[in-house]
Every structure is written in structure tokens, then in C-alpha cells.
Amino acid sequence: MVRKILVTPFQKFVRIESLSGMLLFGATVVALILANSPLANQFQSLWDYKLGISTSGFELIKPLILWINDGLMAIFFFLIGLEIKRELLIGELNTVKKASFPLFAAIGGMLVPVLLFLVLNDNPDNSHGWGIPMATDIAFSLAILRLLGKRVPLGLKVFLTAFAIVDDLGAVMVIALFYSESINWALIAIALVLLAILFFLSYRRIYAKGLILVFGIIIWVLFLKAGIHPTIAGVLLAFTIPIRQKINVRTYVDKLCNIVDDIKDSGDSDSPLLTKDQIEGIDDLEDWTEKVQSPLQHLEHRLHNWVAFLIMPLFALSNAGVSFRGEGNLDSMLGGIIVICLVVGKLIGITLLSWLGVKLRFAELPEGVNFYQVIGIALLAGVGFTMSIFVANLAFSDNAYLLDSAKAGILIGSLIAGLAGYLVLRFSSKKSAH
Questions:
Q1: Which of 91, 125, 234, 300 is close enough to 87 for a disulfide, judged by CB 3.0 to 4.6 Å?
Q2: Structural contact between residues 391 and 320, judged by C-beta atoms closer than 8 angstroms
Q3: What is the dihedral of CA 213, 86, 110, 140, to 10 degrees?
Q4: Which of 278, 254, 252 is nearest to 265 (CA)?
Q5: Cβ atoms of 180 and 225 closer than 8 Å
Q6: pLDDT tens for residues 254-311?
Q7: In 3-state terms, what secondary structure has residue 229?
């Protein structure tokens, strides 16, 4: 019974991410078709359309694509921040023993692709793209795992999720340190003061939703104007959300029973209208229900569907439209290096570091998982789609030619990695069954 209670939320998470991956795939296909159709110019002009506000002392006007990449994706990174905080405090990364195996895998999956990129690339113009093959797209990879059904043990899905979250944390740090512009430290200082206030409130278990929303918008603008990518503000803001509820479940259940009894005794059960006491009882029930919910868990639950089914597909639709029309319009060397880094780099890095971790007894394989399946996951980790395209936008923001070349490499590499990972996992599942 306890296992069922623990597993069901994770299975729901996997199901949402899997469906999101399928929607991402559909949005990508639509973007590619439109970008290579007679409607290509209209499709591109849609994302270039400028929106914003302007006053005598303040201006914030951006193309639609940047409102998606800088604005909506800040919500995506906010959700990632919530997931990272949960995993570090009470999840699969909250102890050294739990975190060791996915941590070794994530380190290998980040370092080897970066080193491989630096070794293979000899063009200084392309050198800023070294961070592109670092991260793993959890939605796409879990969608592929879902196709394998019960052939894949739950431990493998937990492993993939855990190391993908560590990957995301690494990518966030890289974006903050290496893909930000010249920094206005005065604006950053103001933002940090606001964050410190929110951290203090979190420490005191005070969850003021309105204040967090207002401060969040101000901090986002401050980061944007300061030269640090504003999605980092989303991650930092997530760390200020309390994870502990105000009351425990036992207290809530006791209050719930008392309120239910009072509602029963306060009026006619057949009447279509509630009495004043019943209305007050329901209001009390709502107050106690809010107190028993973890603010972090509640926000995760509320945002997950919006991110999975709206923000990420919209990001794919606006960013995956690479034009293949004409000849010589892509840098095949850059695209090829990214393909190699995503497929070969991830495979070598994750497999080698995972094996070393187990052999040196710093880590152990998850229950029901074998090394054939780890190889399959290592290939699947080469599906870098969302985060890789995001980093590519930052690396080549002023060069459409290199950006399209990088995106083409990401799409091809992710496709190869996804197919190879699926086939290896399918074969390894059959082998382990025998």
C-alpha cells in the first residue's frame, strides 16, 4: 500500500511528460513543414512580430519569439527549479547513496559531450556552442520509454528522471555563468535583496502568493535588464517556495472530521441552500485544505500541465522551424559535431562514468536495472531537444546561419539517439526477460 502511494505520483509525472513528448514531436514536425513550405516567410514573420510596453522612463518591447524564450520559458525553468528543490530535499537526490548513480551518469553526460565538442571543433565562430549537447530532454526521453510499456522497470524511469534533473541543474549553471551578457551588478543587487526577503519568508514558512508573484515579475525584469538570462530568475524564485506545509496530515484529518460533523448537524441535507454555519464550515475546510498542502507540491501540480501541454510545444513550434530549402545554407560541420556529441558523447560519458561509479563502489545500480539498459538510457539521453535548442538560441543569437545549423544538428542527433535508445532498450528488455 505504501509503495502504491509513493509510486502513483511518479507514474502520473511520467505519463504527463510522455504525452508532452508526443505533443513536442508533433509541434516540431509542424514547424519543420511550415518553415520549408510556401508559407515560410509568414511563419517567420509571426515570431518576429514585436509586442511590449513603453513609457517615458521604461521600455520592454520584444519579438514574440523572445517573449516565449525569455518569458514563458522562465515558467518552464521555475518548474525545473521546483523539481530540483524537491529532489534535493526529499526525492531521489536527497542522500549521497540515492544521488550517487544518477550523479555519476549526469557528470559523464555533461562533461564528455562538451570535451568532444571542443576537440572536434576547430572553427572559432562555432566555439560558443559547446554547451548545446549538455542537457537531456526529459519529455521526449520519457515519451520513448513509455512506448516500451512494461518492458522497462520503474527503477530505470526514476534513474532517467533523476539524472536528467541533475543535467538541467548543470545547464542552468552554464547558462548563468557563460551565456549571459555584460552584467549590471546594481540591478542584480536589487534582485538579490528581493530574493533574500522571499528566502526569509520561506524559512519562516510564510507563503504569500501575491507577494511572490509581484516580486517574481520585478526580479525577472531586473535580471533581463541586468544582462543575466531571465530564466535564471525562474530557478532562483523556485528555491524560495516552501516545501513544508503549515499543518500535518493528522491534524488536517481531525479538523476535517469535526467540520464534516458540524456541516451534517447544521442544516437539512435535502435543502438546496446551505445554512450560514454550513457556508462557514466549507470556508474553514478550504482554509485547512490550503494549510495542509505543500506550497511547492501544489505549484508543481498546477504548473505541470501548463508547461507540458502549452509552453514546451509552443517553444518547439517557434524554435524548431529550420529551413532546408536551397543549397549551402547550413554549416554541416557544426551540425555534424553536435550530432556526434549528442549520440556518441552522451553514450560514452554516461556509460563510462556509471560503470566507474559502480566498480569503485561509490554507486550502485537501481533495483531491476542492468547495464544493457543503462547503455540504452545513455543513448536516449542524447535527445537534447528543448534545452539544447534553448542554449543554441543563446550561443548564436546574432547569427541565424549558425543557429539554424545548430538546430539541424540537434534535430538529427536527437532523432538518431531516440531511435537507437529505443532499439537497445527493446533488445535489452527481451534479453533480461530470458
A1: 91
A2: no
A3: -80
A4: 278
A5: no
A6: 778 887 777 777 766 666 777 777 777 777 777 777 777 788 888 988 898 898 889 9
A7: coil
